[in-house]
């Protein structure tokens, strides 16, 4: 029973998977998408779901600091709704405020170059989204 965490952007989707017990999140990959051209990477996501027996998807919800949902949040909701329709798997939205900044800080502390950070930041944010959700389930 694996879960998938997604950090949905306008150009990339960071993907993380949980272990089978739902304790830890590991970064898997970053999928290139193009919102403007309606290229969303759903085929690639479907392959990951099938290959890893994913039973739930956690989509990062980028809320504004005051808790309202702006254009990026609406884009994440659209993405999640499409995933539910296409794959008949429950989608949970997880407040991702500050996850990208936290991921950036971790990578800076690891002294990673800007070029390398750019390649892994979305995947790292997806890990933080999924791990936050997994931790909340243990404490809930």
UniProtKB/TrEMBL annotation:
<dbReference type="GO" id="GO:0000967">
    <property type="term" value="P:rRNA 5'-end processing"/>
</dbReference>
<dbReference type="GO" id="GO:0016788">
    <property type="term" value="F:hydrolase activity, acting on ester bonds"/>
</dbReference>
<keyword id="KW-0540">Nuclease</keyword>
<keyword id="KW-0690">Ribosome biogenesis</keyword>
<protein>
    <recommendedName>
        <fullName>Putative pre-16S rRNA nuclease</fullName>
        <ecNumber>3.1.-.-</ecNumber>
    </recommendedName>
</protein>
<dbReference type="GO" id="GO:0004518">
    <property type="term" value="F:nuclease activity"/>
</dbReference>
<dbReference type="GO" id="GO:0005829">
    <property type="term" value="C:cytosol"/>
</dbReference>
<feature type="domain" description="YqgF/RNase H-like">
    <location>
        <begin position="1"/>
        <end position="103"/>
    </location>
</feature>
<keyword id="KW-0378">Hydrolase</keyword>
<dbReference type="InterPro" id="IPR037027">
    <property type="entry name" value="YqgF/RNaseH-like_dom_sf"/>
</dbReference>
<dbReference type="InterPro" id="IPR012337">
    <property type="entry name" value="RNaseH-like_sf"/>
</dbReference>
<dbReference type="Pfam" id="PF03652">
    <property type="entry name" value="RuvX"/>
</dbReference>
<dbReference type="InterPro" id="IPR006641">
    <property type="entry name" value="YqgF/RNaseH-like_dom"/>
</dbReference>
<comment type="function">
    <text>Could be a nuclease involved in processing of the 5'-end of pre-16S rRNA.</text>
</comment>
<dbReference type="InterPro" id="IPR005227">
    <property type="entry name" value="YqgF"/>
</dbReference>
<keyword id="KW-0963">Cytoplasm</keyword>
<comment type="similarity">
    <text>Belongs to the YqgF HJR family.</text>
</comment>
């Amino acid at each position: 029973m694996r879960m998938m965490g997604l950090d949905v952007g306008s150009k990339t989707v960071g993907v993380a998977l949980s272990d089978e017990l739902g304790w830890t999140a590991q970064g898997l990959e970053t999928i290139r998408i193009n919102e403007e051209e309606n290229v969303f990477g759903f085929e690639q996501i479907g392959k990951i779901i099938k290959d890893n027996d994913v039973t739930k998807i956690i989509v990062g919800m980028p809320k504004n600091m005051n808790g309202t949902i702006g254009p990026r949040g609406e884009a994440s909701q659209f993405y999640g709704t499409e995933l539910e329709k296409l794959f008949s798997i429950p989608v949970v939205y997880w407040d991702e405020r500050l996850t990208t900044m936290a991921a950036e800080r971790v990578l800076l502390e690891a002294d990673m170059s800007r070029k390398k950070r750019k390649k892994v930041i979305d995947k790292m944010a997806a890990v933080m989204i999924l791990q936050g959700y997994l931790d909340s389930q243990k404490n809930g």
